[in-house]
């Protein structure tokens, strides 16, 4: 921590909350000498020159390493006075001034080097920030250094920052609502172009870049004028910026900022006031440059700190660096947005935005707790409200920075930061209008002169249409007229074309067909889709500027980054707002064909991604649970036309482009998104083309291609028109089994998923009246599939979860003709042992859930010797162990479901086995709320429902030898069991899909069936167990009937 100690001990740093007890003479030498120098007036006499010589020598000899409390403003004032006093013809004095400047500014360079040292330690992993005190001390030093020399600020900071989920509140009463901004006059500010006049060679390229982005404030008229005096701490209104319109004001509907932000009041100097010499100006510029570099170094060091600690630790310091909405009359806390809005250096502003972006990146879970509330009159502010307030303030400040910024590079960082904020904010829990303000402010920047600004603007629009999609607010924004938001005369972006510039439509044969895919009532076009299409396919309007990186020589289109981002936005729209994208389906098909036919692999790749999203959107419309009305769906005939365009275009060439395996993989994914109903309507040669290409690519040596092909085959094998094709299913099975042996885990995981799908197809084919598929399917292939699935069940969890699913399906599919063969006996035993082992192993819960499901599938095959085979007791013991002790309630539910599947008493084995299952279920019912994980409580009702159904099912199959043990359990736990069965009868299934009957009649009938079965049992003479069990069931039904009847009667009386 030596570097931190250096940073804390340097002059010019900000004062801290708890400074050390200063010695009596600390800093007095510098202040006395400075006061004496400032008291002098320009005088060319020898006595005056002698006194100045003496003062300069004393200042140079001062030990600044031991002197604290010297502010940068004091150093700057001293150097300005020194330059005023020294005549330029006095070479010796000029030399002394230069030595003094060098001596004082070297102290700042030491601070820069200290920060660089900390950054190097962080980047090298040599500084382990494990202790709260260490991290807090470092962050305190960095925050102090971030504002080093920033004009107009004099802040006090503690020596250590401590993590806290909530800011420190004082006991102020609730704040009255702020007045509408429309009732106050708004300041108007005129921009001035800053001339780049460099008087000395010491101003190098980096300083030139910074000065070109410095902000210069013009005189402000009106009541909104604010002066940032030295040493003052500005409140929200004194940041030098106008506020955005508040909700309810007359300006709120426009969602724009009419006056750009100006900062740096220390630069508010007219030409008449500028009586400093060129030497003085150069000295001030150098001082400002040094101070800016210190701030940049601190920000770079903070960025390294963010990357070296966990996000959950970082967010403990959220309120120290991210702004919150200030209360009326209270000062605005200093934060990263203070630098973004006030720092005169464009590079420093960009650094601050990079740090803020790094904080926001990956913050979705942290920000997800935010929630707006209208109840502000509370004794405390909830954490959720505080985070929501912080999100709103970030939106406000970034939009102010957006309209104020003149540097293109910093402007790009602002928009990227906004995109990060939008991607992580929970707009579904916040009040409306935040996205509307961002949307309307960013639209003009799509036509900015700098290509990087244009690209980042599209990125931001993409973030808006992809966050929590679909959002009603964004839906309305997409339907805005094309010219909305483009007529802002005060826009910071003067490079705009006519308002209808994006209405230009690319020519092509698809225009006549575009209306075919438009559902009724969707005539309103989406301007953003039109913009993106135009960006991708239309020639650029102007010649490529020098800033247009990615614009190849001789290219007639927009720069490649612009086109790629436009394709990305189209993909987001297709995914989140397909109802709008479907209007342009055929037109987008032409765009995809054009992109995939180009030479640039990146353009081809993004075209394939867009195709996949469109295909997925079409599939979603035709799912059984889709809420889209049939007349609002894209007709199957149009979908067939769309895919014919793809298959007759460049898609097959992209699939065979072995030079670009990533493109091949993406095209495979796109081809797997074809609508099954459309695939069956394709000409047979196009169907064969798809199947042949996929089966051929499965032999690819590239793992990406092989994984994508395996997945695509797993999709195709579920198609109704293909699943009964024995040859295709067999070819697909052989291809998948080959991929299961691949060295790549990703390939094996995809192949296992496809094997699970293929075995699902086998089960579906069992339910068809035509037995030809089962008869024709190869027994040898079944053996191969079983062996491969057993081997895969020992693989990693990603593979294992689908391998056990496939095992259950295969054992369910086995026909008596297979089971009778000796060669199947060993493989069946091995398969079941693999399932039992997986049920009991402490694997991922998804794996164990699938294993329980698979065992239940095995129980469904009446041809297997369940009840007599040696593995019967092992399977039941595994399931009863899980139902009573597994931490995950969904796995318990699935095991209880499996225990209720056998349909005959003999399948449960001996009386001892039956009783063991019964007692385990009763125990599981008792422990149905025993969990330390509160997330499991929501599955308690579902678990009890499934256990009750299993108990009633066992009663309906019980034999005479089972009754005594059942009576014994009911005598000791009858009240508990009865209470839960009554709940089951009254409420039915809840939560997880349990397969339990849902209607009251079905549940009641289950109990009556069990009662009738118990009554039909021929009990042994003198055995009272039968009567006790029947009394229990009759009593349960009576209580349920009386309770239901009384409820109905009560409701009837209430109605009357």
From TrEMBL:
Segments carrying the region annotation (Disordered) are 1-27, 168-280
Q: Which residues lie in Basic residues bias regions?
A: 189-201
- Gene3D superfamilies the UniProt entry points to: Leucine-rich Repeat Variant
Give every DUF4042 domain span: 293-474
**Gene name in the database record:** HEATR6
Record's compositionally biased regions (Low complexity): 263-274
Query: Is the keyword Ligase in the record?
Result: no
Q: Does the keyword Phosphoprotein apply?
A: yes
Say which domain of life the source belongs to. Answer: Eukaryota
The cross-references to Pfam families, in alphabetical order and at most eight, read: DUF4042
InterPro entries attached here? ARM-like, ARM-type_fold, DUF4042, HEAT6
Q: Which organism is it from?
A: Acinonyx jubatus (Cheetah)
What name does this protein carry? HEAT repeat-containing protein 6
Task: Output compositional bias ranges, type Polar residues.
Answer: 177-188
Q: Which keywords accompany this UniProt record?
A: Phosphoprotein, Repeat
